UniProtKB/TrEMBL annotation:
This is ST8SIA2 protein. One of its GO terms (biological process) is N-glycan processing. It comes from Branchiostoma lanceolatum. It is found in: Golgi apparatus membrane. Its main location: Golgi. It comes from the Eukaryota. PROSITE patterns: SULFATASE_1.
């Protein structure tokens, strides 16, 4: 008699657990899609808690009209004369095969006929073709720009010289799919990995591993230079620490492309920046490119702009940044790129409010802010986090039919304010 009662009790308990799990799943359904979306983009919900699930599609649809594909293909036909990911971003693991079977100067097979040389097809590149790419410079113009979510929404994110991103992710994003390196930065990274200073070494390893699958590529002359040995140090450290970062090298320097810019825009650039050359390379495998962090002036809207977003270095005079900036602005005007300068604030969220064109509804965009900084990660309505602005408006009977909330809304009054339904829990 006791055994059947025990089995029935266990069965009843399991049923209660299942019902509870189904209730919780239904309660948080709106959050699940956002979490899946965040994982797909390698983003943290703490970084962008307000992103709706369809943020990427809506953002890129809004931006689609800016690009002129005819002009983009004209540019690509020129840049492909000078850049090719198959020869400029090669797996470092293919280096010995490359040196054994290929001519580094011509990128052809050594055993092919001189009159009919065959391309070096024994090496490989991790680069594919991408529809949308973000080329992110390190300019101080990115500080307080709120560009992070927009940058991470691109299919492929490219940076230069492995900058810090975690502490600045709201402004610069958190993803890095490719980072290109100059000789000075490669030396710094290799030295940090060999140092006896464990803190510095751990910090560099953390930066190398911050974006799983990131491609770490050198940009200058590699064959016969010390860069090969510096890259070997980096590659060994990556393997010894089980990081998924991919090391790569070029068959020739990015700097052997000076004539590109003369052909592209009719201007001579004596020493193009790593960022500009990275953009030119990206144009060979990206359809639509958005540029961030490229701004040469020391001030913007009467406010000081540092050289880098992560330090207080003075502005450099080595590169002709004014000419590069003018070039980018012209390409933006021609629909070849989207050059983003300044603060986005929440303007880019207008597309997420689903104010569909052609529908007869008022076009009001209304934001309520209870900004509590880093503490603003809990559930509205708990004992420690106060939201006086939302409470005040909610008690007056205001309702919104379209909404974005930073975190879950747990009180009936706030749920009614955001959704018009009472009581219900609302989320992102």
């Amino acid at each position: 008699m006791i055994r059947p009662i025990f089995h029935a009790t266990v069965f009843f308990g399991i049923c209660l657990i299942i019902v509870g799990l189904l209730y919780v799943y239904k309660l948080t359904a709106s959050l699940q899609l956002a979490r899946i979306f965040a994982r797909r983009l390698n983003m943290s919900r703490q970084d962008y808690p307000w992103l709706p699930p369809n943020f990427t599609d809506q953002l890129m649809t809004e931006r689609e009209a800016h690009f002129n594909m005819t002009n983009i293909w004209k540019m690509r036909n020129i840049t492909r004369k000078y850049f090719n990911p198959k020869s400029h971003i090669i797996y470092f693991s293919d280096f010995h095969v490359f040196m054994q079977k290929c001519d580094p100067h011509t990128f052809t097979l050594r055993n092919s006929h001189p009159r009919r040389p065959r391309p070096c097809n024994v090496v490989h590149t991790p680069i594919k073709q991408y529809r949308t790419c973000a080329v992110v410079g390190n300019g101080g113009i990115l500080l307080h720009s709120s560009c992070g979510a927009e940058i991470d929404a691109h299919e492929f994110v490219i940076r230069s010289n492995l900058p810090p991103v975690h502490d600045y992710r709201r402004d610069v994003g958190s993803r890095t799919d490719l980072t290109t390196m100059n000789v000075i930065r490669l030396d710094q990274i290799a030295n940090a990995l060999e140092t006896f200073n464990s803190t510095l070494r751990k910090d560099m390893l953390a930066r190398l591993g911050q974006s799983p699958g990131m491609i770490f590529s050198y940009s200058f002359s590699f064959i016969g230079s010390k860069a090969r040995y510096r890259m070997q140090i980096v590659d060994t450290a990556i393997k010894n620490n089980h990081l998924s970062t991919i090391t790569a090298f070029p068959s020739r320097s990015f700097l052997k492309s000076k004539r590109l810019y003369t052909e592209l825009v009719g201007k001579d650039l004596n020493f193009a920046s790593t960022g500009l050359n990275t953009f030119a390379l990206a144009s060979t495998f990206c359809e639509r490119i958005s540029i961030y962090g490229f701004y040469p002036m020391p001030t913007y809207q009467n406010k000081r702009v540092p050289y880098h977003y992560y330090d207080i270095r003075p502005h450099s005079g080595r590169h002709d940044f004014d000419e590069e900036y003018a070039m980018l602005r012209q390409m933006d005007a021609d629909g070849v790129i989207k050059h983003v300068v300044g603060k986005l604030w929440f303007a880019f969220l207008s597309a997420t409010l689903t104010l569909s064109r052609g529908e007869d509804r008022p076009n009001f965009v209304f934001f309520v802010a209870d900004d509590l900084g880093i503490g603003d990660v809990g559930c509205f309505g708990n004992d420690t986090i106060r939201t006086p602005n939302i409470d005040s408006i909610a008690t007056k009977g205001a309702k919104l039919t379209q909404h974005l909330a930073a975190t879950a809304v747990c009180t009936p009054s706030r749920a009614a304010f955001l959704t018009g339904r009472y009581p219900i829990r609302s989320g992102t």
